[in-house]
Q: What sequence folds into this?
């Protein structure tokens, strides 16, 4: 049997690594670029966020803005624990960080790449580069793949694991097979605030901030990073994933409300300020930061409220106190634009999951054709969830293709 896998990313290579070498079988991975597993290489700052230490599947599914119906079946078949076991059985230990993200103990993505690649080579998988698919033709007993370089390949079964494309036109060869494709829009992007003075604090991070998108029911909490173009960090990326379509429709022109103190409310903050007025009234406001905010951010917010360096807690005017409470708990920012990172680009959209059998990853429309990974309309927030979807769907597809 000849199995063609389109795409040498996480899902495609993991599927190939899980197809055992058998007499008469030929497994070939076709990659349009010159490199394999590129997203794995750069993810997590080069450390590779392999999965997430969330072992309760119903809870895990809540981390995916899209594709829940499919994931309800795939994640039970190959879970984060299965991912940990797969890599550990091949000598790669994973560790969980405080926020649940899991990385190899080496803190090097190459460790993950090597484990998958060695397994592929052990299973005698062939990899062919610079192979961009133009169309797939259904033949009498299988398929003929037509490539841009005018070459062809005849396959009995095909796994499409080509990742998400940024433009709908790039799905044409899949649409020609009769599949419904939902328009792709970016997910997991940072928020731009051109020339906003807070960007002068670039590099500063707040470990626990609350962010709400105005006019939407979307709010998240987590680490926030100020960059030279605006705001980033897990809390921003999560908001972007949940609101991917809404923000696209707004042309990335919207407002956010930031609670710099996570979930602190007005009453708590007023109580804290009253305590400072009463017990430490002679302390300078600038020097006594009771909320554990980074010093530069605290000083910036005091300036924004017009609170002078020589102001003491006991002398803080009520108007400035109220302004400070507003700035720390409901700080409004106008976002105009986004930044996506090409290497880690994640799409909201893709092939409709309703057209795929979640038990096997086989197409319901075209027998012998399978899907895995981000080509499907299933994507997670930041934290290892997208890789888990790639491993789960790739593993299921691999076992289904050889079983039937």
A:
């Amino acid at each position: 049997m000849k199995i063609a896998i389109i795409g040498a990313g996480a899902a495609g290579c993991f599927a190939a690594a899980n197809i055992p070498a058998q007499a008469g079988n030929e497994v070939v991975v076709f990659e349009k670029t010159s490199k394999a597993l590129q997203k794995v290489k750069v993810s997590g700052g080069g450390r590779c966020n392999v999965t997430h230490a969330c072992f309760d599947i119903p809870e895990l599914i809540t981390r995916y803005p899209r594709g829940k119906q499919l994931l309800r079946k795939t994640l039970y078949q190959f879970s984060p624990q299965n991912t940990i076991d797969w890599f550990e059985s091949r000598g790669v230990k994973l560790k969980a960080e405080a926020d649940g993200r899991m990385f190899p103990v080496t803190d090097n993505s190459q460790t993950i790449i090597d484990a998958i690649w060695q397994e592929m080579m052990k299973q005698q998988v062939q990899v062919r580069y610079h192979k961009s698919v133009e169309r797939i033709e259904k033949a009498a007993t299988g398929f003929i793949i037509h490539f841009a370089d005018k070459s062809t390949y005849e396959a009995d079964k095909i796994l499409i694991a080509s990742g998400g494309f940024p433009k709908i036109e790039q799905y044409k060869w899949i649409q020609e097979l009769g599949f419904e494709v939902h328009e792709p829009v970016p997910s997991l992007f940072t928020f731009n605030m051109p020339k906003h003075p807070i960007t002068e604090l670039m590099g500063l991070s707040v470990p626990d901030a609350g962010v709400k998108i105005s006019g939407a029911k979307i709010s998240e909490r987590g680490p926030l990073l100020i960059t030279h173009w605006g705001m980033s960090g897990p809390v921003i990326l999560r908001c972007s994933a949940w609101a991917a379509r809404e923000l696209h429709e707004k042309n990335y022109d919207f407002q956010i409300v930031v609670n710099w103190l996570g979930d602190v409310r007005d009453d708590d903050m007023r109580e804290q300020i009253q305590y400072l007025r009463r017990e430490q009234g002679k302390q300078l406001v600038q020097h006594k930061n009771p909320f554990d905010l980074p010093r530069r951010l605290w000083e910036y917010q005091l300036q924004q409220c017009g609170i002078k360096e020589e102001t003491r807690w006991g002398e803080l005017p009520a108007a400035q106190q109220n302004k400070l409470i507003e700035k720390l708990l409901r700080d409004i920012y106008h976002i105009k634009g986004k930044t996506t990172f090409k290497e880690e680009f994640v799409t909201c959209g893709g092939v409709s999951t309703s057209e795929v059998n979640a038990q096997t990853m086989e197409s319901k429309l075209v027998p012998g054709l399978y899907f895995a990974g981000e080509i499907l309309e299933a994507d997670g927030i930041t934290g290892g969830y997208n890789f888990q979807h790639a491993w789960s769907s790739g593993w299921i597809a691999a076992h289904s293709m050889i079983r039937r």
User: Anything to note?
Assistant: The chain has two domains: 2-186+345-403, 189-339. The mean pLDDT is 96. The longest strand covers residues 205-213.
